[in-house]
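#struct-help
A.M.: can someone run this one for me? Single chain, 445 residues.
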Amino acid sequence: MEFNEFLKQAANVKPSMKQLVWFDTEFYAFIHFTINTFTDREWGLGDEDEKIFDPKKLDCRQWVKAIKSAGMKGMILTAKHHDGFCLWPSKYTEHCIKNSPYKDGKGDIVLEAAQACKEGGIKFGFYLSPWDRNSRYYGTDEYNDYFKSQLTELLTNYGNIFHVWFDGACGEGPNGKRQVYDYNGYIETIRKYQPDATIFSDFGPDVRWCGNEAGSPRAAEWAVVPAELTVRAEKQTEGQVLKGNMSYIFSRDQLIGSLPTILYSKGLCFAGSEYDMSIRKGWFYHADQAPWPLEKLFNTYLGTVGGNACLNLNIPPNRDGLFDETDVIRLRELGDLIRSSFQNDMMKDATVTKADIDSDTQVAYDIIFPTKRMVRYVVLKEDISKGQKVESFLVMTSENIIAPRYDGSTIGHKKICVINKETDFLRVHITAARGTVGLLPIEVY
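D.P.: on it. Structure tokens below:
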């Protein structure tokens, strides 16, 4: 394939409507809560007695209130973790809430969580672990049918689902065997019953893993990536410019969507990156842990939501079924800081002039304020419905071209540029793009 034709195709790889809606969600909560909460483990063994699960004060409305205070727009509940214990009364296993003391075996925490989200006006999704250390079917062909049956229960009984979350864990089951997962069948089941839901897994199809669980962003985050990385995503281009082997590519790689990488790809797809991390060290609640400092959480938000990705922040309920008060306070502090930081857009009294550059793939805007003011953040956004195109850009706080204040790479859905400079002048200069630049209105805070 000729380079110019390839670049044109790369510039026109576009998200689906469900991916656009997911990107606009930006920030949502993960809820790790199961029998592990009562055994003080991170990974259960699968042989735990259901009777130890008894959250006497469980209140999903408390969860939703705290989640909303942080500015999050959704919740993903761990409906089943690796231990196989289900938070809903599944017809397909006895290792579930119906055999616990909670509400005398009549409880359904998936339903309570879904209802609380609906009442609170946030989205609801779930995580169903493919690895099951309890199921006697695990490691056999029957297990995939069992798993799809449980998927169907969750997809059909709890209203609209915005996000279905899988991980790649594949250890041994109770029979000592590992499982070959029927991901294509899982995806087909989800598409059948919840066609508007996005699906997260290590390999797509809609949303991919960022490569770490620490909230550490890449310098350049592309949503247009080689299909070799997200093998279940829909390939939108065919052919490659340079012959080569892409078998090395992995989620942790830093240059996943860069030009030197995609030139060797046999096709490109659209799959945005999700950063999942916990508000504490562990994913499940442990009484000896405390939430991360506010500064760490805020900087994670800036680098992920402000780095062309979404942030899935875990908050683990305690044995009472409540968020710890220290986590509730930290969530409120985080939400207050985000709101105050991005409350007053200074562009309302700015004069904007577009530079006369004879190029579709370079563009520059001069922004002049009537007085000097402290500019902390410049927020840039591409119209990604038409593709992600920007390769590099500068944000300068003076007309002195040898002293750019911020040297950036990708933009995508949203890029938050940390400036922290008093000035009455800004220049946003897109220095390279794969196609015609389509910036949405610039925001300055």
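A.M.: thanks! The chain has ten helices and 16 strands.
D.P.: also worth noting: Residues 61 and 440 are 36 Å apart (CA to CA).
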